[in-house]
Design a protein that fits this description.
The chain has about 325 residues and is of the alpha+beta class. The chain has 2 domains: about 170 residues, 3-Layer(aba) Sandwich (Peroxisomal Thiolase, Chain A, domain 1); about 140 residues, Peroxisomal Thiolase, Chain A, domain 1. The chain contains 10 helices and 15 strands. The chain starts with a strand and ends with a strand. It binds oxa(dethia)-CoA (UT7). The site of oxa(dethia)-CoA has 21 residues, from helix 2, helix 6 and helix 7.
């Protein structure tokens, strides 16, 4: 038995914050941000929008695209580092919003690799027969955990959500998944704060050693290309589309170069969405599916790297 993505959907909050808007907030420039990252703008959630709300909007679209009803869904996995609350999980809140009764629902915390981790987990549930129709979501409201006075981080992230439906299939969809983590880097990209004794202790904002993350990301994004292709006895030229995590255009270009793939075969949204962490890959997937770029039968390599450090890839046939 195989698992296959049967449909996808996404949601971006209405408000757009441009680099020029940021020039009025911190000592930065559109030129610096665009040259170093490829970002021009990002979406920012409204006050009444949280991770479950963004997930709800994206999930409804994915369910519509896959022609599934709430009653068909038997597993919900939500990848997020910006949950609505400490508990219950955002997946349980999403389950209630969708009116789904009695299926397992849980969050997956692997920061920017969260969607890849969640999709790999859903693949295992579906292929083992434990699930027939899973909802997998990446949803983030990073605007809530940024220090808006720190130009080194606040210009990099945005809000949004993307969702997919993963179903059992007689034909091959998800071909392979590879997940990794190295916790020795846990301090290099973190929100180190926590809640204790009714107070926030430590820094509740994103902190990042940008250069360390950058170098590590370029290295593992290249390694994951070899890992996925070797495991499946495939050539670089077999890959139709690269859907990388959208953190920095320079990291994306390095991964494309490793694959020998022209940038016209790489889905890029970082210019419009910035880094939406666990939401970035499903948002990019939906972008390219909606405009007709991705066609049935094409081979897609998704790969992500993020806090932990965590990293991973999913190779699939659309
Ligand atoms: O999702 C996974 C997690 N995130 C990533 O993958 C991000 C990985 N890292 C990066 O993308 C890059 O390291 C950054 C975009 C964050 C930074 O680019 P960089 O080329 O590594 O720049 P830098 O940190 O070395 O900073 C260069 C200069 C510094 O000034 P000095 O010390 O050379 O005078 C910074 O203070 O740029 C300065 N700078 C800024 N200037 C204007 C840092 N942020 C800004 C800013 N606007 N927003």
């Amino acid at each position: 038995m195989y698992s296959r993505i049967a449909g996808c959907g996404s949601y971006l909050p209405e408000k757009i914050l441009t680099n020029h808007d940021l020039e009025a907030m911190v000592d930065t420039s559109d030129e610096w941000i665009f040259k170093r990252t490829g970002i021009r703008q990002r979406h920012i959630a409204a006050e009444n929008e949280n991770a479950s709300e963004l997930a709800f909007q994206a999930s409804k679209k994915a369910m519509h695209a896959a022609h599934v009803a709430p009653s068909d869904i038997d597993l919900i996995i939500v990848a997020t580092s910006t949950p609505d609350m400490i508990f219950p999980s955002t997946a349980c809140i999403l389950q209630a919003k969708l009116g789904i009764k009695n299926c397992p629902a849980f969050d997956m915390q692997a920061v920017c690799s969260g969607f890849v981790y969640a999709l790999a987990t859903a693949d295992l549930f579906v292929r083992s027969g434990k699930s027939r129709c899973a909802l997998v979501v990446g949803t983030e409201v990073y605007s809530r955990i940024l220090d808006w006075t720190d130009r080194g981080t606040c210009v990099l992230f945005g809000d949004g959500a993307g969702a997919v439906i993963v179903k059992t299939s007689k034909t091959q969809g998800i071909i392979s998944t590879h997940l990794h983590a190295d916790g020795s880097y846990h301090k290099d990209l973190a929100v180190p704060g926590s809640i204790s004794g009714g107070k926030v202790t430590g820094n509740p904002h994103v902190v990042m050693e940008g250069n360390t993350v950058f170098k590590f990301a370029v290295k593992v994004m290249s390694e994951m290309v070899d890992e996925a292709l070797t495991a499946n006895n495939l050539k670089k030229s077999d890959v139709s589309w690269l859907i990388p995590h959208q953190a920095n255009i320079r990291i994306i270009q390095a991964a494309a170069k490793k694959l020998g793939l022209g940038m016209d075969r790489v889905v890029v949204t970082v210019d419009r969405h910035a880094n939406t962490s666990a939401a970035s890959i499903p948002l990019a997937l939906d972008d390219a599916v909606q405009d007709g770029r991705i066609k049935k039968g094409e081979l897609i390599l998704m790969e992500a790297v993020g806090g932990g450090f965590t990293w991973g890839s999913v190779l699939l046939r659309w």
